[in-house]
Protein: HAD-IIB family hydrolase
Amino acid sequence: MTSRPLIFTDIDGTLLDHFDYSFNHAIDVIEELNERHIPIIANTSKTFAEMEKLQQTIGINSPFISENGAVIYIPIGYFDEQPKDTVTQGYYWVKEFCPPRQHWLDLLAQQAVEFEDEYVGFSSFSVEELCEVTDLAPDKARLALVRHYSEPLLWKGDDVRKQEFIAHMTSLGAHMLQGGRFLHIGGESDKGKAMNWLAQVYANHYQAPVTTVALGDSGNDSAMLEAADIAIQIKSPTHDFPVLRKKQTIKSQECDSKGWAECITATVLTPSLVTSSTSASLTGA
Ligand SMILES: [Mg+2]
Structure:
């Protein structure tokens, strides 16, 4: 039986360019995937509000994984039957993997007083301040602030204190994850667990095996990349490729959406090129 590909992709610095949030270089490939009915599933730290808008902009209608694997939103009716363990919220079937944001805000307020001058959390940011830190436009920054499961923190202290903070919060049951710009505090969920859960739902729906193809650029993508059948690391203009436990990954030559298009073309659209003339290099991690 033929295996059906599923594309799980990080958004910032992977499908969207790090500096200007554009995906222009990937448009042709996205259209090709849509024509072939190959799902593009966002797996991102972004919020529901951000992703719902972005799905429309990109032109995809698949389920998406939000807040670093904390939750999956599946458009109602996307599968024939509502997947088990989901609840209905608005236009979506929702699968949750961890406690809500308020739990983590309370933990920070009560248990991390000694670090409080060394970070700024999203809950203290105004729209204007977030625009300054991220270069997001105000309308997009407003959507980014509405989070449900996790709290991104901008670390202002030094690296030693950051490691102490991470160890302290981890000992209290938090899961700490370094993204491209922010240190995220949330529950024991990750992009890999959420991907695996959703891949199983697809396999049940297709009544066929699936091949998970994951793309990401940062440390918060590692769990997803390590769990994927095909792991693709997208080159970043700002940092090195994170080191993964998985032995082999494909590393893009180009950055951001250009690298995304390059690697999807090489692996999914023209698989025979992977071992011959692709510009993406298959290397040990
Ligand atoms: Mg990223």
Remarks:
- The chain has nine helices and 14 strands.
- Residues 10, 12-14, 180, 217-218 surround magnesium ion (CB under 6 Å).
- The domain at 101-185 is CATH 3.30.980.20 (Threonyl-tRNA Synthetase; Chain A, domain 2).
